Amino acid sequence: MSARSKARKRAVDLIYAAELRKVPVADLLEETSAEKPLNPYTVTLVEGWSEHSEEIDSLLASFARGWSLHRMPAVDRNVLRIATFELVFSADIPDAVAITEAVKLVGELSTDESPAFVNGVLASVAREGRNKLNQPASSAGADEGPEVSG
Fold this sequence. Notes:
By secondary structure, this protein is mostly helical. It is built from 7 helices and no strands.
């Protein structure tokens, strides 16, 4: 597993833990960083989601047809949050990479149906999410087909 893959998993773990403990993710990030230094990319992902959480959750709610955020498995919801941050707000991550990494992560951590669900939601986010938020397209992979088979 690459360093960025590990950073993504750790970011999901932190957001998930903050949600369970009902504490602000920034507090948990600070607490965790004091115990052991975190990969800088983990910090970027957690802080990025925290800064854009309302926009990201709104996008996910609009593209996860038939599923509210609260009905989704927690792992799926938090993987989608991290990947959506990468797709919409991180110009240096190709869309196909963000989607593939998210699909792999839910494949390891969640239900059998999760990879197809996450792939579909993120493909929609990659196609239409930036336009909804008036964000510039990622130069890395913007012209490629973002959908990845699980």
